[in-house]
Amino acid sequence: MFEVLIAPFYEYEFMLQALLACALVSLSAPLLGLFLILKKISLTGDAISHAILPGVAVGYAVAGLSVTAMTVGGFIAGSIVIVLSGLVSRITRNGEDSSLAVFYMVSLALGVLIISLNGSNIDLLSILFGSLLAINEECLYLLSAIAAITVVTMTVIRRPFLMDCVDPDFLRQNGINGHIYHMIFMILVVLNLISGFQTIGTLMAVGILILPAAISRLWFNSLLFCCILSPLVASFACYSGIILSFHFNYPTSPVIIITLGLVYMISVLCGTNGGLLWKIYHLKHLDS
Question: Which of 3, 30, 116, 214 could lock onto 230 through a cystine, CB 3.0 to 4.6 A?
Answer without folding.
Answer: 30
